[in-house]
Amino acid sequence: MSNAVMSDKKVVQIHRYGSRHWVGDGFPVRNLIPGNSVGETLSPFLLLDYAGPENFSPTDQPRGVGEHPHRGFETVTIVYDGVVAHRDSTGSGGVIGPGDVQWMTAASGVVHEEMHEKEWASKGGVFHAIQLWVNLPRAHKMSSPGYQTLLKRDIPVVELAGGAGQLRVIAGEFRGISETMPRGIKGPAKTFTPVHLYDVRLKAGHATEIAVPTVFNTAVFVLQGGVSVNGSGRVGEAELVQLDNSGERMTLKATDDTVLLVLSGEPIDEPVARYGPFVMNTKTELVQAVNDYQAGKMGHLS
Fold first, then answer.
1. For the segment 206-236, what is each residue's pLDDT rounded down to a tens digit?
2. 0.90 exceeded by the pTM?
3. C-alpha angle with apex 52: 23 to 119, nearest 5 degrees?
4. Closest CA to 54 of 86, 24, 74
5. For 116-144, what is each residue's pLDDT tens digit?
6. Alpha-carbon distance 227 to 44, whole Å?
């Protein structure tokens, strides 16, 4: 597609984190979604918690968050530093470290735990991660749970034009605007609705252009450094840029060496009812989720 026929996505708002709290005793998070009046305006993304960076001292008792349920959506954990061990009531589990991604589909219901991996915990170190919640459409909320381990080596890397940096395609497809950029690079994550998720590293003083679909809700979250998005002022650490869903071009200009995450997804135009770890379409379905969990229908960890 020619650069000349593209229009820019407009910046709607720049959000700071709404709260800072601990999830269990292993994840000190700053919450960006759904706080800050973002609400459901970034559907299908329901939650963004930014964990760390936090230095943990060595321990023989791994920290984390113990057994808890989910229904009606997917959790996506992206690790930058540290190591996470996961196991759930379906028998799935795994260990993810720097550069790896865990994509868990809770769907009809799952009970799981997320802990610092034992060997890593015994040595201590810096922990740094993001967790997203991605909504499921009504037709799939009660489907079977699933689990995807996306290892660093399996996530394709795009070298950005002009030596600007690198972009990893976790989900969806990368569409570079420059004629010199590769196109059609697809991420390994399997999704129920169209989602593009890019892990980007930009070098100070460099810029890159990315195309995302016109109708998709889109945001840029800065983990480290600083960047201008489509002419915005500098956006820094733990800030989220929300863009409108007109236009399809994003220009990212780094003021510092920057690590950021691009989230873009087709909105799910359905009612959202949420209560703690459950996200359904109606309050009646939420009551059923609570009853099912209490009755043990989502299983337990052995």
1. 999 999 999 999 999 999 999 999 999 999 9
2. yes
3. 80
4. 24
5. 999 999 999 999 999 999 999 999 999 99
6. 24
